[in-house]
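#lab-general

N.A. 3:47 PM
ok so I finally got the sequence cleaned up, no stray characters, all 254 residues accounted for. can someone with queue access submit it? mine expired

B.Y. 3:52 PM
send it over

N.A. 3:53 PM
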Amino acid sequence: MIKGMLFYEPEKLDDIKGNESAIAELRRFAMSFKLGKYERPLLVYGPTGIGKSSAVRMLAKENGWNVIELNASDYRDKESISKLLMAASQSRGLFGGRNMVLLDEVDELSARFDKGASSAITELITKSKNPIIMIANDMWDQKIAFLRNSTTPVEFKRPKQFVVEEVLKGVASEAGITPNADVITAIARRSGGDIRSAISDMLILGNSPDEALDYIGLRDKKGYIFETLDRIFLSNTIAAPLRAITNSYTRKCP
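B.Y. 4:20 PM
back already:
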């Protein structure tokens, strides 16, 4: 589904391409809960932009689960985790559906946890009756070492270039744009497997001429959003804002 000019959001789990074995493991996890069997939480990990968070949210949608997500800005202390997530992990939703507890980017959230947060999460894992899924870029980050023995790892890998190309063709068709094959190949190659950035690049380019590819390159993953906004609003030309957008790093599409 195309949302606005620059954002694409999958509508179902099968829309996530290039990690079929990981998708199968997510579905096996969900089936266990349908059969009344408890499963250890999943630790879904892999590089940014390849569909981890989208896959987990589509899994919840596919199974009618309510997503209860840890918010990095508000719920990073032991009391909040115990009070809010523990209740969700042991109860049903308003209309009887299961709650799924989601800790997205847990390797980054961990830097903001207070000293008791890890013990609260460990207790959450031990007592939960509902599915828990955690998402990380790097499962070997020492800050989340306490999770490795109590979760089941599910790896998402960078999809191959031909997979990215096929995804781009499908999104282009849905968006009503017709980039030529060379443009699709160039974007896919330069994405390095980051499907999210590849889709954004293609939607930015639209039906632009091939020369616009000069502004699509490997992103500076540490680019700051405020610097990008300055270049967009303070520039008198179209080239600089386009380059700023395509070189910025956006962690999530809204």
